[in-house]
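ok trying again, last paste got cut off:
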Amino acid sequence: MVLTCSAIPCRFLISALSIINLSIAAERSIVELYQYLFILSSTGELFRSFLEFCYDKPCYDEHSCASATWHVVYSFIIHNKDTFFNNATRSRIVHHILQRIKYEEGKNKIGLNRLLTNGSYEAAFPLHEGSYRSKNSIRTHGAVNHRHLLYECWASWGVWYKYQPLDLVRRYFGEKIGLYFAWLGWYTGMLFPAAFIGLFVFLYGVITLDHCQVSKEVCQATDIIMCPVCDKYCPFMRLSDSCVYAKVTHLFDNGATVFFAVFMAVWATVFLEFWKRRRAVIAYDWDLIDWEEEEEEIRPQFEAKYSKKERMNPISGKPEPYQAFADKCSRLIVSASGIFFMICVVIAAVFGIVIYRVVTVSTFAAFKWALIRNNSQVATTGTAVCINFCIIMLLNVLYEKVALLLTNLEQPRTESEWENSFTLKMFLFQFVNLNSSTFYIAFFLGRFTGHPGAYLRLINRWRLEECHPSGCLIDLCMQMGIIMVLKQTWNNFMELGYPLIQNWWTRRKVRQERGPERKISFPQWEKDYNLQPMNAYGLFDEYLEMSMKI
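nice, full thing came through this time. structure:
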């Protein structure tokens, strides 16, 4: 089945307003929200002409928000019924209807999602306005549609330095996606001063490398003999053998590091407070103040589950589905138990990595290659980090499924309650999964090793791992650096490379199936069907990734 939003009559959309509690109001003209990259407006003015929107912004009549019903809307002077509702609003109304429509009489079988799950339908998606490309130049012939305009002025690599046309993004994709890109642009702009100061601190470490007293003492300690780091195969070594690692440590831990730590604490506060101001401006301009409270609605899954248990709403005076307190408590207890179990799984994985580090240091010390044999601790740390990264990625997949299962088990009443519950679980799982090994290296590695003649051992057999003579910072840097690089590389591939490969493969397969008819242009619904589907959780993964970085 193909259902286009434009096929829904305007009168039907208007009649659905009272059910959805959608918000519209009086006309006003759009005021473009520019994405400032600088806090100081005086500095930003110098670059405005260079960073401004690349083409003339189309003149739209936008609507500020207020709760509306059909009789309120009919009081407006609607000049064009086809353009009164933008595409995002039309898609939202249709989605609301399809999510709550009953497809079998007498049974609690409600919603399009269930039909997609049981295979009745292959896909359901709103259609794009048309192609994002045009044979003619946009400079001479203008934009064919909003999608074409957004591609040329926003999604192309050649306009990466331009301000984002946030109002156009909002009009085409909706408020949630518009707010995400507003936040992403603000976050990216605020990273510039942090990156500049971080680079300055690193360069300061490079410049003062030959003047570091600690590095000098380590490099000159040729007569100080250090005990072996393991019982077998590990030789005695001189303290001066750690000269290179001591110098590398100085690059990241020098006199300017304290200043950088203070700066980042201030930067985080400034970033948050200025974003609150920026968000307030956007919320006022887009009329999103108290948007969730005004437009909150019951989830269709909750309605289907508790449709037989209703009570009168004291505010609206209408019957609504009701979840008993005992039922809610029992579900929360099961969910909390599942969360606790998954955290224990993370701790068990970290303990397994610790055992690996303890056991393999002797193996690398007996390796036939001199490079690995002489750097057994670094080799142990490097391989442990790579194994830890694989475990993190595998557990992330498991955690997402478990968090979804537990959240659905709780049966949240509204969409915001579902999102809050799912966000809490995923953030907790991801935080523990990503940072547990880092916490071990930062606070526990080398703290409980004992001393020569009385070493602490694991199950009375293996000596607990010690820090490198130059300190544990080199292990911490390797842990954070390798995981950050590998995780960022993987995420970029999944966000950019994998969809391109999938789309290319789909187009190739379709051309082979069409044969001689492959030059015939496809209808828009078929073109959109061959694209990669949007994440089931919307922009949740993007927000989660950014929050983990911060």
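cool. The two ends are 43 Å apart (CA to CA). Residues 180 and 542 are 9 Å apart (CA to CA).
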